[in-house]
Design brief:
The chain is 64% helix and 0% strand. The protein is built from 14 helices and no strands. The longest helix is centred in the middle third of the chain and has 24 residues, at 101-124.
């Protein structure tokens, strides 16, 4: 984002990360929200491998937590709905959720709104029509007559969509507003390279431009792999890596430690 700003280039902020940040701004340091998440973490440890474990909440991700609220919020809503039908032991174990009923209800509305907004914008892209629909949804479902925290989330989201409308500047063009495609490509790359974080970026990074070229069969037929294999040697890749990549941390570690021995 800073690079775009420094270059004076208008750009659209990724919708998933931004809506997650809107949730974080309101709930990140909210005492009731923090208390609930801590309690959920405690019972996961407390009831693990017990006869109560089959109803435990999904694991809450440490990274990008506010982009991944849906699963455990849905679990909490459903638990509140079925708690009365459980035996006394289960009721006692999960009755703490009753204390957070209002919070869980608010979170449920926010999560459903995030799902609607992301689905709309990822399917249609961001344009004047989609942006107007998003603003209308936020005003109706998150701001109007809502509790304070939910309304605050709505106001942050409304500011976001107004900002994206300003970038459109009346243009009828449709733009992508999601980094999902880029993140999927990096996910493919990460699945192919070593999980050792010390490896850093390797020459495998060169497969990234290839992936979008072969996902559509009609495009794949245009790629003359025989010519590329014949013209590009391993030494060419090694030379490119030497000129463009930082040193391999695993090799550097081994070299340094071996010197010491």
């Amino acid at each position: 984002m800073d690079g775009f700003m420094d270059a004076g280039i208008d750009h659209h902020l990724d919708i998933s990360h931004t809506l997650g940040n809107c949730m974080k701004l309101v709930y990140g340091k909210d005492s009731e929200f923090v208390s609930l998440t801590e309690k959920l973490g405690t019972i996961r440890l407390q009831y693990h491998l017990t006869d109560k474990a089959w109803l435990l909440p999904p694991n809450m991700r440490a990274m990008a937590r506010f982009m991944n609220l849906r699963e455990w919020v849905t679990w909490a809503q459903r638990m509140l709905g079925c708690l009365d039908s459980q035996d006394d032991g289960m009721k006692e174990a999960y009755s703490f959720l009753l204390t957070y009923r209002e919070l869980i209800g608010d979170l449920g509305v926010c999560v459903e709104s995030v799902n609607y907004l992301e689905t709309l914008c990822k399917r249609e892209g961001v344009g004047l029509r989609a942006n107007a629909l998003c603003q209308r949804h936020v005003i109706r479902n998150l701001i109007g007559n809502a509790p304070n925290r939910r309304a605050c989330v709505g106001l942050w989201m409304l500011d976001y969509f107004k900002g994206q409308a300003a970038v459109l500047n009346g243009s009828k063009q449709i733009f992508n507003i999601s980094l999902d495609i880029i993140e999927s490509e990096f996910g493919i790359l990460k699945s192919k390279v070593s999980p050792n974080k010390l490896h850093g970026v390797t020459p495998m990074i060169m497969v990234l431009p290839l992936y979008p070229k072969i996902t559509v069969y009609s495009d794949a037929k245009k790629q003359n792999f025989k010519v590329r294999l014949a013209n590009v040697k391993l030494k060419d890749i090694d030379l490119w890596a030497k000129e463009n990549l930082s040193p391999n941390r695993v090799a550097l570690r081994s070299k340094t430690l071996n010197k010491a021995s």
